[in-house]
Design brief:
2 domains, 69% helix, globular
């Protein structure tokens, strides 16, 4: 079987085509908005498209966001694979970051155990926080969307309170902790940049989630429950237990992201509202990637580029960074709907593939 006739190759090509078309339409609409709002739209739009590559520093900022978007996208994708709609990743990020901070600010923070122990504790804390809405759904029938959103709110407020009241240096008015010891901060992969272990952790996480989903019995059970929970029950698969385990595993990834935040070179400490709502934007990454782990980093790469470009455009031009919200909304609407490329039949005939090729072959 050739790649052209392989169903998986066709499906992947179709999804990539949909994502690229959605991105092109979103950029076109964004250009129109910039054209109407900016006094120098060509410069502003050029900044959006090229600024992340303008220096090593901006490229490092982009890659740092790609790592974080990949992890939050993986967490949401894992939950969505089980056809659950838990929104609790942001709360898990805050809980994981808090527990990683406890390790970094303790005597262990100045030892070689600081990073591995901080990551481990953050993942365990995130997993425990992810377990709560899963158990509430399975045991009491609680709506996982509502419970996870409320847990987000609780985690953010508790962490912010602890920073203000206990963790920030007294008498300074700072809204962050002291800088972590050097042993509790990721080493730079490139000197004087934000290229650190975060991107390595993100890549390893993608491989781990893919392996768990497609090469283990647990992953098969999770996907079966996601496709048809009733059929899975008839097949002897406990759907409730599988659902809880999926939310717990996603929580561990969320906690890992919290550790990547506070141990990363961009922070090296815990600050109030440190995630800038990026952890919640993993929903967009997961939706565009159609919950496929190997596609998540690709989507994160492009979306992180647009996000960073929009922020730099806001600094270097008269267009506000909120323009990226337009891109987000349009991409979600197009990818999540039955969007198809206008004039698709024409392009099929032009490039002589798909149904047109079949008809031609049948006439020979």
């Amino acid at each position: 079987m050739s790649l052209r006739t392989d169903p998986r190759f066709k499906a992947a090509g179709k999804e990539i085509g949909r994502a690229v078309a959605a991105l092109a339409v979103a950029l076109l609409v964004t250009f129109v908005v910039v054209l109407l709002t900016s006094q120098d739209p060509i410069k502003a739009f050029g900044t959006l498209l090229t600024a992340p590559f303008s220096s090593m520093r901006t490229t490092g900022l982009w890659i740092d966001e790609v790592a974080k978007l990949t992890l939050t996208g993986l967490a949401f994708a894992l939950v969505f694979q089980a056809r659950q709609f838990s929104m609790g990743v942001q709360g898990q990020v805050y809980v994981g970051a808090l527990f990683a901070t406890f390790i970094a600010l303790s005597p262990l923070g100045a030892t070689l155990l600081a990073l591995p122990l901080g990551i481990l504790v953050a993942m365990l804390a995130g997993a425990a926080y992810g377990f709560i809405p899963g158990y509430a759904k399975a045991r009491f029938g609680a709506n996982e969307i509502v419970s996870s959103l409320m847990l987000n709110y609780l985690a953010i407020k508790v962490v912010n309170y602890l920073i203000r009241a206990h963790l920030a240096p007294t008498g300074t008015g700072q809204l962050m902790t002291e800088k972590f010891p050097a042993q509790s901060i990721f080493p730079a992969l490139l000197p004087n940049t934000r290229f650190d272990l975060g991107i390595v952790i993100a890549v390893l996480s993608v491989a781990a989630v893919w392996f768990l989903l497609y090469r283990t019995r647990w992953g098969l059970k999770l996907r079966l429950v996601g496709h048809n929970a009733r059929f899975a029950e008839y097949a002897g698969i406990p759907s409730s237990l599988t659902m809880i385990s999926a939310m717990t595993a996603a929580g561990a990834i969320g906690g890992l992201l919290g550790a990547v935040y506070v141990h990363g070179r961009a922070f090296g400490r815990l600050a109030i509202d440190f995630d800038g709502n990026l952890a919640f934007e993993g929903i967009l990454v997961a939706i565009v990637a159609r919950d496929r782990p190997l596609v998540v980093p690709i989507v994160a790469l492009f979306y992180g580029y647009l996000r960073q470009g929009a922020q730099l455009m806001a600094i270097r031009s008269d267009v506000p960074s909120e323009v990226i919200s337009i891109v987000q909304a349009i991409i979600i609407l197009l990818v999540a709907s039955s969007f198809t490329i206008p004039g698709k039949a024409f392009w099929v005939r032009l490039f002589r593939f798909g149904p047109a090729r079949t008809v031609e072959a049948a006439g020979k």
